[in-house]
Amino acid sequence: QSMDSTLHYIHNDSDLSTNSSFSPEEERKSKVQDVVPQALLDQYLSMTDPSRAQTVDTEIAKHCAYSLPGVALTLGRQNWHCLKDTYETLASDMQWKVRRTLAFSIHELAVILGDQLTAGDLVPVFNGFLKDLDEVRIGVLKHLHDFLKLLHVDKRREYLYQLQEFLVTDNSRNWRFRAELAEQLILLLDLYSARDIYDYLRPIAFSLCADKVSSVRWISYKLVSEMVKKLYMASTPTFVIDLMNELVEKFCRCHKWSGRQTFVFICQ
Q1: CB-based contact 169:159 (threshold 8 Å)
Q2: Distance (Å, rounded) from C-alpha 194 to C-alpha 90?
Q3: CA-to-CA separations, 103 to 115, 119, 135, in angstroms, rounded
Q4: Distance in angstroms (rounded) separating the CA atoms of residues 212 and 173
Q5: pLDDT (tens digit, 9 = 90+) per residue, 109-145?
Q6: Which terminus in the chain has less CB density within 10 A, N or C?
Q7: What is the pTM of this model?
Q8: In angstroms, rounded to a whole number, what is the distance separating the alpha carbons of residues 42 and 204?
């Protein structure tokens, strides 16, 4: 009883800084839940305040970002309203390490929150990460399939237009970025139709097959072979025939030996 009264006292007197248009009382009510002691949650939320992070500990926001999926899992999706503002604050943090931490875990958070909350609250953050620094983009790229498979089909198709952008990096020597893209495209073949694969993923795959770094090319050969398998299983044979004709024309009959070697490796 003593503990309960103390927690009640701390919670009622806690000064939660917020940028919301709600009144302090409404804001406090929106953050109330009954899963963990409210004072504990209030303390966690207050640690993401940018002014506090600058004066107390510059690493504190990163640690909060790292813990956020665990906090969300503990509270449950019915209490996501308690964390939403904090998540958006961290997602726009000035430190790229904080944004990078969230980028690496956004797919986990999507599983916790479910379809509707993901579409409404996480997709805008995800889109922001796609345009961020390479150090942040790699986080969403490494789990691109894990995140996109949770989206509705129509929403998922919108990202087909953006996949090409992953070929462009801040540093052209960042070959691991392109290698990761090839790995993810292999997984993404299961999420898209034969036409989408032919129209959008095929040009990226052919570009990766001609990469300057051999490690990227090796993964790309596997990508193209998986693409042939996928299109072969499709109801319309046109796509796989066109793809194989292009392979013959572009690589098998290439005037460079490296192109002809590429054809052999894909067949292998």
Answers
A1: no
A2: 38
A3: 18, 16, 10
A4: 10
A5: 999 999 899 999 999 999 999 999 999 999 999 999 9
A6: N
A7: 0.81
A8: 47
17: confidence class by pLDDT, cuts 50, 70, 90:
very low
Asked if 207 contacts 167 with a C-beta cutoff of 8 angstroms, the reply is yes
Tokens coding 62: 């990163």
Residue with tokens 């198709």: 157
DSSP string, 82-104: GTHHHHHHHHT-S-HHHHHHHHH
Contact 231, 241 (CB under 8 A): no
Structure confidence by residue, pLDDT tens digits, 154-212: 999 999 988 988 888 888 788 999 999 999 999 999 999 999 999 999 999 999 999 99
Measured distance CA(257)–CA(61) in Å, rounded: 53
CA 156 to each of CA 25, 189, 235: distance values in angstroms, whole numbers, following the listed order: 39, 12, 22
Q: So what's the pLDDT on residue 135? A: 93
* Structural domains in the chain plus CATH codes: 34-151 (1.25.10.10), 181-267 (no CATH)
